[in-house]
Design brief:
heterodimer, A: mainly alpha, ABC transporter involved in vitamin B12 uptake, BtuC, Arc Repressor Mutant, subunit A, 70% helix, B: mainly alpha, 13 helices, 75% helix
Amino acid sequence: MNSANGDSRGEPRGILGSERSHAYAMLRRRKPSAHMDLPIRSKLAFRTIGSVLALLAFSSIAHAAKIGDIADTSWSDQALEFFALEHPAIRAAALGTLLIGFCCGALGSFLVVRKLALLGDTLSHAVLPGVALGFLWNASKDPWAIFVGATGAGVMGVALVGWIQHTTRLKEDSAMGMVLAGFYGLGVSLTTMIQNMVMGNKSGLDKLFFGQAAALSSGDLWLLGIISSISIALILLFYKEFLVISFDIGFAKAVGMPVQALHYLLMALLTFAVVVSLQAVGVVLVSALLITPAAAAYLLTDRMHWVLVLAAGFGMISGILGAFISYLSNNLPTGPLIVLGSTTIFTLALIFGPKHGLLTKALRRRRQRQRIALENTLKSVFHLSESSGFTRKEFSIAALANERNQDLASTEKEVRALVAAQLARHVDSENGAEWSGQARFQLKKAGWLRACEIVRNHRLWELYLTNAAQYQSDHVHDDAEEIEHLIGEDIVQRIEERLKSPIQDPHGKLIPRRDQVTA
Amino acid sequence: MQRERLIPEFDWNAVFVQPWSEYASNSFWIVLMGFLVSGTCGLVGCFVILRRMALVGDAISHSLLPGITLAFLLTHSRDTLPMMIGAVAAGVVTVALIEAIRYSSRIKADAAIGIVFSSLFAVGVILISVFADKVDLDAECVLYGELGFIPLQEIAYFGETEIGPEPVIRMGIIALIAIGLLVAFYKEMLVTSFDAGLAASLGISPTRYQYGLTLFLSIVIVSSFESVGVVLVIAMIIFPGATALLLTDRLSNALWISTAFSACYAVFGFHLATWLNASIAGGMTVIAGIVFGIIWMVSPGQGLIIQFRSRHSSNEEALEPINPSL
């Protein structure tokens, strides 16, 4: 059935596309003249800055680089060559992936915070029949015709998802899956039909599946630039509205915002972004560009405008990285590399994020556990002291172990931790005595105050539970055991005021007074 | 096969008669394979839809790519077993990663699914590109599937007797296993799908059946993707069940109806693709979409026409509801 298609596999199909993707291969074999000395390097560096500025002006005029002799180039030379952005194809790829990363990252943020991430996936598959029809319009890869067709298909797909959800009992995921697969199936049918046609052999439609940044034409770039500017302008213009419909749609409706219109505006922008990214990233992976940078940003900050900025930044970084690696290794498609770049950023954010990172959370939990252990030790020392009528100041490790019902070794570790935290001191250490069961230690002032504070938290909480919350006095200990480490000084004071500065806890023990704690 | 026009003239003889006279055996195997794939996917799909796992299925179907590529690179064979193991491992890894991201961060399920499957798919594409000379897997074949090549596949023998192309036999076995599992665990699947709390109180672990379904889903997807491609597997999983659920309230009926729809996709999809000279999997999906559209319109219980009518008739009888907040 697909024999024509199958036989020609491996041969370049798209004239435009193949030319440009081979441009990479050609370029890699050339290099700047072998004796690239200092002035040239500084000139290169200067030009790098210059070309970044020039990028903004879309200088697609071919400044054919004066590249000298031909030889195998090293990795660093290739990097220089790439980032010098001298060749139009490289410039197109770099600029294109930057813009794509920017656009998709910023717009994707709204999808991620609205829990609509997979709508991006649906969208990227749903545009395929539109792309094919746009291609058929005048049988060429005219970016504008493809753009119009794809946008139509994308918006139709999103509308259909909403419609199926509203009128049937099928849930969002099934609706999305059906639109995704149904449109894609239509697209695959159309694509195979086109490729079986005479002209179809040079359609280059196959590039749309995995993407090749080097295949970006100047028409594509113009389109990208225009779409990016429109997106930025609209996001800035409607930032507040988009923010409100993303986080509190009920409120948005209540204050009379045109919620539906805003939703479809956002969807139209997203469709634009997906369509212009197809060429460089491919149908299957565009959704990753929408989701992954935004998710990484969402892990790092709680403010929506920072999510937007970070996501756009991450998108651009992964875009340029993808284009660069694809350039280094000639046969790798750009799309998957860009996706893996953003996945790497996401993984780093997931692990090392300063607020929600796994490592940060683990460290925080560990510190908390250590603090609780320390406070429990202090509390036991307080009990020891209390049972002696607050006469004794020095205690042996053995006595503490007895009080805490545990073995000597772990008790010794706890006391060492107290000493390390400057809360206690080893009484005999001046005489050079060893640590042992009989070794004695004394709480420093800070340690004693902390101990009083914990006991005070514990006993006040117990009293509060029995007096104010009507708990049985034999049920309150376990709860207080947990809360004593977490409760803050202001809450403790409020409890104290409410209980009218009590002296004794439900078990008849003295509650350390506030002046004892703060002294 | 090349031609100038996109839509060829409709030739009754070429589209409907020839396939069943001249090429009858080829057509038979293609349609049978199409039916086995969409039927099996449809049975599993009913549960997938009820459990709102449709997009997890999509994710699994994408992440099979690195799984089978790695399996191929490690074993250098296209045997069923290593592929199956690679695919199932990929499916399990996908689900585990999605859950891990969900539980360890504030990323929601949807974004987690998107991140995991796109990354794994990207890994797969890169593996194929890097080892292009060693891997006899074609990314395009993975995307489209090649149902049309089924009759050209190796023939499986039972003893001395020729029974049919090997992939069809394999898919048939998978279908039989699916039916067997369905009969054996119907009640458990029913309860865990609709009321996880009740299931747990009856001593049926919902998570165990969830993972079981995920595993079996991976197996079904990997045995189907060769013929319909990774993306259209999802069509075969969702469409029969979703369409059937528009027609009935009972799960057992839905299973029967979805099987009937699958047969319909296979037959009409094949003829549509023959007429248009397009991908057969694509044709099947288009038919699936059309059938869904028709049922969505005319379904006696929940169709658009019924909804439209009842809205109009109720407008005449009932007063406008009074909004208490005004």
